[in-house]
Design goal:
alpha+beta; Methyltransferase, Cobalt-precorrin-4 Transmethylase, Domain 2; Heat Shock Protein 90; disordered N terminus
């Protein structure tokens, strides 16, 4: 990026005002000094530098930002003329606020702006927007992709867009190797019961030379990495096929806190609290056992039963829920957890008349845009590889088909109430209502 070309072995003058990133988030942010800015301006516009006299034509500004972000990042400076004269802007704070709005609302995915207000001795101030393209490809709100060639922007061709999309395949957290894990932490019986379901098609025992656990994990399932004979399971590999005790030790935040409350809120007294640990197969079955301990699960709404006993008895009947909806709620929590959030545990709350699952999920970029889409079955998967294996019948779980749309429909038909879905404060909450 242009501005970074001039940063090596250079003393920086302090900026007169803090950057937006430091101002809002209280984090250290890259700062553009007066000396560095003048060096860049003297060189004129190029692939990584765009100069603007003022902030006008907001649609075009959004396109310029997208073009810089898709070309690897760059710097956009407001207050510099085409003749490379520093003229400044009249309302630097207003320009900054408008750029923040553009980056957040007019660009997909949203950009976190790094903005410096740089003042000169004559009182003129310029605004420098540092653009990083870490999550490219970016597009404008109307769905157009732009790239930058030299000092000009243009809309990306099909070939260029295809290259950007191909490059965008991210290294997700599920693909990160687990520090301290090894091949011995894999439950081989579980792994090979899964692999043998594909014998004769995907898996050839003779060609594989028997049952080489490490090779199958790395080569066939892409659930491990390592050089030579080393096998280090990924987060997905350990969660899917790890030994229960080692998953609890190496990935403690993968556990579920299950609580039965004697009431309808978390302020009610606790009847039982349990910490569920193990791989995903173990967790799924343990969570459903905990639910069945206090609730009745049905495939269809049960017929009402006449009350019996003394009228003065204050006994609360066990709540009834649709079996498939509850199973999908548990599976959804296990598969779509944002494991990169360390301090947001998954919680299972059982109340007298409701079941609530609280899961870690970064709110930024998920709600409200995707909140409606998931109700229609449009996936917003954090862990696609993990989800694919977990949902496969060969993994050994009896899961109801249909996903979240099935859950919402069956829960409503069964109880007469819509399931509640909320995503705030990096948590995804799903509440199902039961009947007595």
């Amino acid at each position: 990026m242009a501005r970074r070309k001039f940063r090596s072995n250079q003393r920086h003058e302090p900026v007169t005002e803090r950057s937006f990133q430091e101002y809002v988030f209280n984090l250290p942010a890259p700062a553009t000094s007066r000396t560095e800015l003048l060096r860049l301006v003297r060189g004129g516009e190029d692939t990584y530098l765009e100069l603007k006299v003022k902030l006008s034509n907001l649609e075009k500004i959004a396109q310029e930002i997208v073009a810089l972000a898709n070309t690897g990042g760059g710097l956009m400076v407001f207050g510099v003329s085409d003749q490379l004269r520093v003229e400044g802007v009249d309302d630097a704070e207003g320009v900054r606020e408008e750029l923040v709005r553009i980056c957040r609302e007019q660009i997909v995915p949203p950009l976190v702006p790094y903005i410096d207000l740089v003042a000169f001795d004559n009182g003129r101030r310029v605004v420098a927007l540092d653009i990083e393209g870490k999550r490219r490809p970016y597009q404008t709100r109307d769905g157009r992709y732009f790239i930058r060639i030299g000092a000009e922007k243009r809309e990306a061709s099909r070939e260029e867009l295809s290259a950007l999309l191909d490059e965008a395949r991210p290294l997700r957290y599920e693909n990160v190797m687990v520090t301290g894990a090894s091949e011995t932490d894999i439950d081989e019986a579980h792994l090979w019961s899964f692999v043998r379901e594909f014998a004769g098609d995907a898996f050839n025992e003779e060609a594989a030379g028997g049952y080489p656990t490490g090779e199958v994990l790395k080569r066939d399932l892409l659930l491990a990495a390592g050089n030579m004979g080393e096998t280090v399971p990924t987060v997905a590999g350990l969660l899917l096929f790890g030994r229960d005790e080692r998953v609890a030790q190496l990935l403690p935040r993968s556990s579920i806190t299950a609580v039965r409350y004697a009431g309808d809120t978390t302020q009610a007294p606790e009847i039982e609290r349990a910490q569920l640990t193990g791989n995903l197969h173990t967790l799924c079955e343990a969570a459903q056992r905990f639910i069945r301990r206090y609730c009745d699960l049905w495939d269809a709404r049960p017929r009402p039963v006449a009350a019996s006993g003394d009228a003065g008895e204050m006994l609360i009947a066990r709540a009834n829920y649709h079996r498939g909806a509850v199973g999908e709620a548990v599976a959804n929590a296990l598969v779509h957890r944002d494991l990169a959030l360390r301090d947001q545990p998954t919680r299972l709350h059982i109340f007298d008349r409701a079941i609530e699952v609280v899961n870690a999920r970064r709110t930024l970029g998920f709600m409200p845009v995707a909140g409606r889409a998931i109700r229609y079955g449009v996936p917003q998967r954090l862990n696609p590889q993990l989800a694919a294996i977990f949902a496969n019948a060969a993994y050994g779980l009896d899961l109801a088909p249909g996903g979240l749309p099935m859950l919402l429909r069956q829960a409503r038909l069964f109880s007469g109430r819509r399931a509640d879905i909320n995503a705030t404060n990096d948590e995804f909450r799903l509440r199902l209502y039961g009947i007595e």
